[in-house]
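Let us practice reading a record.
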Amino acid sequence: PAPGAEGTAAVPSAPAAPATGAAAAGPAAGAPAAGAAGPEAARSRRFPSITQDTARPEGHGRAAPGDALAARQWPMLSVLAATAIGLLLTALGHPRVGCLVIGVALISASVLRRVLPSVGMLAVRSRFTDMVTYGLLGVAITLIALVIEPKPVLHLPFLESAVRFTVR
């Protein structure tokens, strides 16, 4: 580091999000005018030592007011509520119905992720990745629910041979 740059505090007006490229050395970042050299120019490219704010997730616009935060989480809350009901049904001795409810909840999460522009915390990765992940897990859990013994609803012939070689 440059002499005298150790232990310097962050400029209070510096933005919390990291700036890249030439924008980091601009006057908005608390740097001196263009053409200045030395420790001041190097300091403006560093992350602030004191965090002023948190960076918003990628792709989000303005932060909503405090009362609107819970309102935009309804897709995630509905999927979690359906999953909790499915787990409760499974614990109460109805594993097929419980697994069906969980599978349908995940499939509906995939549909909600596709249809709604803002789904709150249901959006974890890119839209495509979320849809594929939720959809495949939902279909897999639903298929498991349909082949659960006793009296499976769905008969898959290759499962008999697989179970014969592994369990029986």
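A brief commentary: Residues 7-11, 21-31 have pLDDT under 50 and may be disordered.
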